[in-house]
């Protein structure tokens, strides 16, 4: 096992200079005199459909940073895993054999010493102190993490077909695993797994149901007896679903380490579920990423409302309407309110796949030529509702408001969102998409 140099205890933000990486929703900075660490700065920008930052939610930068710090801190605490262990034992729908397999391995070490993560702490916005336990007196948008090599697979032309070369991952022992692990407690109306299921033949559907442990046909807004997982590429121009066999080969991991990352993703999902349950939010799915450091596996990257899907239900016109308290609300907005633009996005992705050209390049050139609609502005009222949601979750994480007050505020905001769609003449479309 290798260890990095000691982490910084204080960072002067005026000295860190320009970002070494500008992402669509966050920036990364090098830490002077501490090359083994980086500073993550969350921004209020938002991104959907792999387009890049196309909207801004006020306050979302601080809200997301606080959630990350709180959740990563929880992952390192043994109490978290004791609650997860108890939840596994008390969930009667779990197949005993499957449960025993999940509880064997990483959970045992996390019960004893917590999970390993790349997270170091949050910078105090006034003093620059790196606070590793609890919240800073002045929370900021800056979290400090351990730095891991990020390797992007080069694209190769194989007899006219384009493939990605993952050989370098088999030659390294410390890196970010080039996969996203999606854990699903249930199936939502916009879930890719539901679209996949609906495209299968009857025979293929039965086999898929058996693989997932379903006792009947898959349907939208269905909670599963046990969570399932699927895997996508991380460092290709677009996220791509991959089989377990391909994922293992892409990862560069041994079969045992690959299995451990899957178990960690499932167990980590239960840890997030525990936090959201307190304020009445139902977790449907989330994604994790991992790094390997020789024989050690670590939770890395982000965990906030951009990376999980949580909901509650409200009564609208005598129907149960699902309200999203995460980025899915923005996806639905674009699908419903900006349908022409959304259709253009899908057309550009199909063209990019056919040509082997980056999607964003195809989209930008197509928009300039008038082939695809320009990116629309989001209604300010809708953005204010999304800001209110994340602010309430922040209040819960910080302990500013008790869980019942936060729960009531989230429901009130959900009702206001339904009225927004009604006032714009789109309520029926929203109900069609998200009503039970």
Automatic annotation (TrEMBL):
Q: Which UniProt keywords apply?
A: ATP-binding, Ligase, Nucleotide-binding, Purine biosynthesis
Q: Which domain of life is it from?
A: Bacteria
Limits of the SAICAR synthetase/ADE2 N-terminal domain: 172-342
Q: What reaction(s) does this enzyme catalyze?
A: 5-amino-1-(5-phospho-D-ribosyl)imidazole-4-carboxylate + L-aspartate + ATP = (2S)-2-[5-amino-1-(5-phospho-beta-D-ribosyl)imidazole-4-carboxamido]succinate + ADP + phosphate + 2 H(+)
- UniProt EC number: 6.3.2.6
- A GO CC term attached to the entry: cytoplasm
- Report the sequence similarity comment from the record: Belongs to the SAICAR synthetase family.
User: What is this protein called in UniProt?
Assistant: phosphoribosylaminoimidazolesuccinocarboxamide synthase
Q: Which organism is it from?
A: Prosthecobacter debontii
């Amino acid at each position: 096992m290798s260890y990095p140099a000691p982490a910084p205890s204080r960072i002067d933000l005026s000295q860190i200079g320009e970002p070494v990486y500008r992402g669509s929703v966050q920036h990364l900075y090098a830490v002077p005199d501490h090359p083994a660490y980086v500073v993550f700065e969350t921004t209020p920008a938002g991104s959907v459909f792999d387009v890049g930052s196309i909207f801004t939610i006020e306050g979302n930068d601080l809200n997301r940073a606080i959630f990350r710090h709180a959740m990563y801190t929880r992952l390192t605490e043994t109490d978290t895993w004791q609650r997860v262990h108890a939840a596994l034992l008390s969930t009667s729908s779990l197949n005993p054999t499957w449960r025993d397999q999940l509880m064997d391995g990483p959970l045992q070490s996390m019960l004893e010493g917590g999970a390993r993560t790349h997270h170091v702490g949050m910078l105090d916005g006034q003093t620059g102190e790196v606070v590793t336990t609890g919240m800073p007196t002045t929370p900021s948008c800056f979290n400090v993490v351990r730095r891991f090599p990020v390797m992007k697979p080069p694209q190769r032309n194989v007899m006219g077909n384009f493939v990605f070369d993952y050989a370098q991952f088999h030659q390294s022992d410390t890196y970010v695993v080039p996969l996203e692990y999606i854990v699903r407690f249930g199936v939502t109306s916009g879930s890719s797994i539901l679209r996949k299921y609906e495209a299968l033949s009857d025979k293929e559907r039965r086999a898929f149901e058996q693989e997932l442990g379903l006792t009947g046909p898959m349907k939208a807004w269905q909670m599963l007896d046990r969570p399932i997982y699927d895997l996508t590429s991380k460092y290709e121009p677009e996220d791509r679903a991959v089989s377990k066999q391909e994922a293992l080969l892409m990862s560069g991991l041994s079969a045992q380490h690959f299995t451990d990352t899957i178990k960690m993703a499932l167990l980590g999902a239960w840890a997030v579920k525990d936090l959201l349950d307190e304020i009445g939010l139902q977790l449907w799915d989330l994604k994790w990423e991992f790094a390997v450091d020789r024989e050690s596996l670590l939770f890395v990257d982000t965990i906030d409302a951009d990376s999980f899907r949580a909901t509650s239900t409200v009564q609208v016109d005598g129907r149960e309407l699902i309200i999203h308290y995460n980025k899915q609300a923005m996806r639905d907005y674009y699908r419903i309110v900006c349908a022409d633009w959304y259709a253009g996005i899908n057309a550009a992705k199909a063209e990019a796949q056919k040509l082997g050209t980056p999607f964003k390049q195809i989209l930008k050139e197509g928009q300039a030529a008038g082939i695809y609609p320009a990116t629309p502005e989001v209604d300010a009222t809708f953005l204010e509702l999304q800001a209110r949601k994340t602010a309430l979750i922040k209040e819960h994480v910080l302990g500013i408001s008790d869980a019942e007050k936060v729960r009531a505020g989230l429901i009130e905001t959900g009702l206001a969102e339904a009225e927004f769609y009604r006032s714009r003449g789109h309520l029926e479309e929203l109900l069609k998409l998200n009503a039970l």
